[in-house]
Amino acid sequence: RRRPAREQTGPGRSGPSRRPLPAPTTPTREFVTGLPKAELHLHLEGTLEPDLKLRLAQRNGIDIGQSTVEEVRATYPFDSPTRFLPEYYPAMEALQTADDFYELADAYLARAAADGVKHAEMFFDPQAHTSRGVPFEAVVTGYHRAAAEAPSKHGIDAHLILCFLRDHSAQSAAETLEASVPFRDKILGVGLDSDERDNPPQKFADVFARARELGYRLTMHCDIDQVGSIDNIRTVLDEIGVDRVDHGTNVVEDPALVDVVRERGLGLTTCPISNSFVTDDMKATEIAGLLRSGVRVTVNSDDPAYFGGYVAENYVALAEAAGLTAQAVVQLARNSVESSGLRVSPRAAARAR
Ligand code: ADE
Ligand code: ZN
């Protein structure tokens, strides 16, 4: 926008030293997209967009009760947090074959590349599929094919993290872990998701100890504002010994634990838009405060098909809500690389890039 002449400053009028400093502005979407970044908290099943769901259902001859994309979209639970998980798992019935899982992951990776993602660690929920008769092998080989193609096809180093459903039994998690062993080279780590109520981390202590023996990296969800959130965060840090915490923003309730997280350099994978959906609060103040205090907080999209924002939109939403500077946003992107499961040399390369 052209300024009126009387506001103009410059060498001819007042000299460069009198030029007012530009006011700090919220980083633009373009700036955020241009930053190389890692996405570390992303559920592949949460990227199932209505058009792909309908196409896969029709291809597999599955009646999902809708026959147009608009009808499918209307079933997505944008209007009620409590509806999310009960709607989320049944929606997966459209996914049947290895090709379906491949297409789902490939579509996410294309979308992530457009947001400047260079490294992705993608959660998947095998029990949501094996429990309805889909073979473990179809899930993992389909997803892995997309991950293996991602460097050349999308410019992304992509990895898989197998999540156990915490509202299923520890025995079921243990069986799922053993089923993963033949595919060990295709899976970077294990995590824990689904409904945290009455399903604390201790329930899976033995499963995670065994996963560590198998060489998996470990992460667990500590969801926002759960009953006992702070106790669960303490448990995952002290007893489980995770490499990262998913969400974990309630750590602000205990400054001593914030110090532990900072000193260990542990990544917290926050998801601002998802937070505002499931709790009516983005938790921007908490996330920005943790960032300022030197904790490795990162920004991620969680279930973008349901919560309506991929990773760049999450950065912008947080930056606007918390009034973050460009430097703070760069720090978030740097944190994402530093918190990733990359081995040292690729991590250094990614950071330099
Ligand atoms: N699995 C996928 N998305 C989830 C969420 N928002 N909370 C718990 N488990 C999930
Ligand atoms: Zn999640």
Quick gist of this model?
The protein is of the alpha/beta class and 353 residues long. The protein has 17 helices and 8 strands.
Which strands sit side by side, in order, in the main sheet?
1-2-3-4-5-6-7-8
Report how far the terminal alpha carbons are from each other. Answer: 33 Å
Number of helices: 17
Can you tell me the residue ranges where pLDDT is under 50 for at least 5 consecutive residues? 1-15
Describe the largest sheet: 8 strands, parallel
Mean pLDDT value: 91
Fraction in helix: 40-55%
How many extended strands?
8
Q: What is the N-to-C succession of helices and strands?
A: HEHHHHEHHEHEHEHEHEHHEHHHH
Structural class, from helix and strand content?
Answer: alpha/beta
Proportion of β residues?
5-15%
- What general outline do the C-alpha atoms trace? globular
Each distinct ligand: adenine, zinc ion
What is the CA-based Rg, rounded?
A: 21 Å
Question: How would you describe what is shown here?
Answer:
With 353 residues, this protein is α/β, with parallel strands linked by helices. The chain is built from 17 helices and 8 strands. It has helices spanning 29-34, 50-59, 69-75, 84-88, 98-114, 127-130, 136-154, 170-180, 205-213, 229-240, 255-264, 272-279, 284-292, 304-307, 311-322, 326-338, 344-352; strands at residues 37-39, 117-124, 157-165, 189-193, 217-222, 244-247, 267-270, 296-299. An 8-stranded parallel β-sheet has the order 1-2-3-4-5-6-7-8. Strand 5 (217-222), helix 10 (229-240) and strand 6 form a beta-alpha-beta unit. The structure holds adenine and zinc ion.
